[in-house]
Specification:
It is a single chain. By secondary structure, the protein is an alpha/beta fold. The protein has one domain: Rossmann fold. Helix content is 38%, strand content 20%. The chain has a seven-stranded mixed β-sheet with strand order 2-3-4-1-5-7-6, with helices on both faces. Strand 3 (58-65) and strand 4 (68-75) form a beta hairpin. Helix 2 (35-46) packs across helix 6 (166-187), helix 3 (82-93) crosses helix 4 (126-135) and helix 6 (166-187) packs antiparallel against helix 7 (191-198). It is globular and about 50 Å long. The two termini are 22 Å apart.
Length: 199
């Protein structure tokens, strides 16, 4: 069921947030940890919008998805403090966790794979940990984007901050398409269908 709230309508009509997690500096572009940014950029392109307004410690954009006004959010707080940005936007528009779709990287999935969850723990992902800690809720629908398991000889921090190869970036194209389609289903109240189709 879609959440509707009078103050939400008055404050701009946003009913959902889609937040892609990542790190803001240029040196982090196309790194594994920035999978959330990569997918969110694809969603913005699909809906012919730009994520270029600076607000709520984030770059923001607006998309209309299946008739619903959606705030696209790229936190600029660095990954480990993602919750600071999301909480500001959620509080301003009175949007509950159930209407915030979080997109982030997952080392337990191969590149080219994704997994949708209705809610749950942070799974060791520090951006998600910040969001759960600052909101006191784990009821966020999330789309996890596979970045591949850490090679044995690598440090975890070095691995997640390494860049995708050109071949891996190509395999992310289908993930971006599927994630956008899954977000549409979630916004329409069909998260079970999204999980059945894309998990």
């Amino acid at each position: 069921m879609l959440f509707r709230h009078k103050s939400t309508e008055l404050a701009g009509g946003y009913q959902f947030i889609i937040a892609g997690l990542g790190n803001p500096d240029r040196k982090y572009e196309n790194t594994r940890h920035n999978s959330g940014f990569i997918v969110l950029d694809h969603i913005a392109e699909k809906y012919n919008t730009r994520i270029d307004r600076l607000k709520y410690k984030s770059y923001c954009g607006t998309a209309e998805i299946n008739g619903v006004k959606v705030l696209l959010l790229k936190p600029q707080t660095y990954m480990n403090n993602s919750g600071q940005a999301l909480v500001e936007a959620m509080n301003f528009y009175k949007i509950p966790p159930e209407n915030c779709i979080i997109i982030f990287d997952d080392i337990s999935l191969d590149v080219g794979k994704m997994r949708i969850r209705r809610k749950g723990s942070d799974g060791g992902q520090k951006g998600m940990r910040s969001i759960i800690y600052l909101t006191g809720s784990d009821a966020f629908p999330r789309i996890k984007v596979g970045i591949g398991a850490k090679p044995e000889s690598w440090d975890l921090a070095d691995w997640v901050l390494s860049r995708f190869s050109d071949q891996e970036l190509k395999s992310l194209d289908s993930v971006c398409e599927n994630a956008a389609a899954a977000a549409e289903l979630i916004i329409s109240g069909n998260i079970d269908k999204a999980m059945n189709l894309y998990n």
